[in-house]
Amino acid sequence: MEQHHNSVTRTPLNSVVVQRRSKSKSYRLSYRSCLGAASRLGLTPALTARRLNTSRRAPKSHNITEKVDAAQLTLLVKTEWQLSYVTPLYQFRHTQLKSYSRQLSAFIAAEKQQGMAVEVEGPQKTFRVSFSLVQGLTESDEDAETVLIQVYSKPVFARQDEPQKPVWSGWLTCINGNPEYLGSLPKDFVCLPLFGSSGAEGLTNLVKSWFQQSFDCCFGPLEISHTSLQWLMALWTNCHNEYSIQHLKMIWTLPAVPPLQVTYTVNSEDAWELWGSVRKGNREREEAEEESSIDIEEVTRFMLGLQSHFYRHFRLDLSAGSLDQVSTALGSAKNNGRIKIANSRYMITTLTLLTECALLKMPI
Known about the structure:
The protein is an alpha+beta fold.
């Protein structure tokens, strides 16, 4: 092992009137839920389970290149995304995406005219928005289709014939969402709880503002917890036999004055060997079952093994600190909610975990 430490669609056809329904019951319920108050949605039995699953299916390779548009997939896997959670959207219709494109374009133009700073690397002439379906990602009948949003523009001084270029991208998704929760929602609500954005913060805020006004929803930051980062480490390492993870890299912050940042990089074969040792107890069970599963106890033992190895070499107790970032050749994740998926074959596994995190983070 190598270590470095330094202080370094599924919605019915229907028309939508996009305006702020500040007096509607749906808006009051959504608004109250964002403030943490009780709401009708909060009384559904499905919302009482507030813990991350302690067992999940072992990752499987999904060849989604045959189902998902190549250009959309390239964008999804090459970009680092800032995550947020989104409460259910009231009267959102997948059949109205062209209309939403025009409405959000007009909204951004109006805000820009009123002096809102939406410049991206210099002043921009106009903004054009495109909503599109990302078909082929859904895993269950309850999941709503993923929606991709792109904002295009070109600089004020660009040539007339110069095409507009994408300056902001975002998406909303639900992959393997909790079926009990999804089934408990009133029929006018669509659940796409996981939101990823890439681009200027000003444009991100405008897109969120438009969604909130149009669909009576709320956005909130989605940090990736210590436990979720450990799950990603285990799930990605479990894929090594099919696709080399190349390395397992962790960045920790240890309590010191000043705080000590530790970068801990483990060779892929060493990580795989350790993972195999904590999985031995499941071999017989896996042979008897069609689908293998991974339990939180195995994830915990894997982490303890990594920490013990580091302590033997450096006499530093990583368990006293906080895990800030994990990465392999399959992707990277940071506790501040930034995620990059580097391999489409295991995108479903990663998005399933993040969908679960988003649903648990929502205040309803």
